[in-house]
Write the structure tokens for this entry.
Amino acid sequence: MLRASSQAKGESFDLGLILGKPGDGNIPHGGLLVGFADAVLGTDDRCLADTQASIRAAMGDAALVDAAAIVATFNAIDRVADATGIPIEPAKAQSTADIRAALGINTFAESRGEVAGSRGYAPAA
Amino acid sequence: MLISYSNAPVPVRDDIVAAHERAWNRIARAGAWFDGKTRLAIAAETRHAANCALCARRKESVSPYGIAGQHDTLGALPERLVEQIHRIVTDPGRLTRGWFDSLMASGTPDTEYVETVGVVATVVAIDTFCRAIGVPLHPLPAPQNGAPHQRRPRTARQRGEAWVAMIHPKDLEGELDSAEEQSLASYWGGVPANIRRALSLVPEEAYEWFRLVEVQYLPGKAMRDFANEYRAITHAQIELVAGRVSVLNQCFY
């Protein structure tokens, strides 16, 4: 969808950003939003508070809410996909083959468990 | 009201509040295969999984499948159900078909497995939202009386597509023998992506889960309407965040 969005608008995003490449990837506040996703799924509450404050200051309160809703949705959708073993649709696999290769996703998938610092889901007390 | 964000540091959209209220109510009511008390026990175990020492050891291990032991559990659910919940919560990226088959062999019906996934996903979605905006988790609601209807949709079949049986949209044409299938057919209205079909063995979990998704993410048509923006962040920003979360979760669907 990121690629579709990019193509539709004639823009060029650096998709390496989703693998943690520094910078904004040609997406406004891209680095901040990646940092927010990392902080929500991470364990450092101070870092999360700082990131929340940065988003509110730079993008506004509504942006924090909508970004939070996206993190929340995909933190759960990923679990639905993984727990049910659904395959990626052939058309989608074909259209994203080059991106998956460029990002090293296929290799990454084979060596699952190598993302440091991610707790995924751990509710606060 | 079960859900309130009145003390949140930022104003929360009314449609999110309403969707969370609806989802929280659903967890407390009887579903297709579990009563409200059991669904709430699944919800509580979902939250408890983060404190499980066995899951922590498995998460740190090269392979989780060589680490035996007992889960730290609240004790309200059978061990096979606890294993399902804890693994989905703590290490979803390394679930395998063999693990799924072992749960089926241990006596978990596929219908109960799917309903459990739906409850876990709902709790994860709402709890993660709370953490992300900086508010405490909502207390779980009290269980409501009622018995599960225990209707398995005849249209759900195992076609070798996924681990679980799913309904194919073509099977929802013509006469349908359950209200849940009729609702699903009406909701889908076409050929959905596999992620929308994933929970269709329990149809109400499939469409209720996506009602929540569409509020938190985007309705189907809005997803691909790149000429317009529907949220306070752009399509590109939305998909960037979604992609990053999926990388962190090692989900490559």
Q: What stands out?
A: The longest strand of chain B covers residues 156-157. Chain B touches chain A through 83 residues (CB under 8 Å). The beta strands of chain B are 156-157, 166-167.
